[in-house]
Amino acid sequence: MGFGGLALATSISAILNGGLALLFLQRHLGSIDIRDLAVTSVKTIAASAAMAAAVVWLQPVAAALAPGAGLMPQTVRLAALIGAGLATLGTAAFLLRIGELGTLTAAVERQIRRRVSR
Asked: Disulfide: which of 20, 58, 73, 86 matches 66 by Cβ 3.0-4.6 Å?
C-alpha cells in the first residue's frame, strides 16, 4: 500500500485514539452530548468528502495549467489544490451549518483586530 497505507493507518489510529479519549472523558465528566457530537462529526465528514472530491477532480486541471516535474510547477499545483480544497471545505462547512466554523471565524477576526490595532 505504500504511503497510502501509512496514511490510512495513521487515520485509523487517530480515530481510535479520539474515540477512546471521548469515552474516558465522558466517564469523567458524565455530560457530553453524544448526539450533537455525532451530528457535527457526520457534517464534518461530508464537508471533508466534498473537499477531497474537489481536489481529485481539479488535479488534472492543475497538471494541465502547471505542467512539469520541476519544483516550481509542483509547488504551484500544490498551492492551487490546497487553496481549492480549503475553499471547498469552508463553503461546505458554511452550507452544512457546522457550528465550529463560527468559532474559527471569530478567532481569526480577533487576531486580525489585535494586529491591526498595534
From this structure: 73
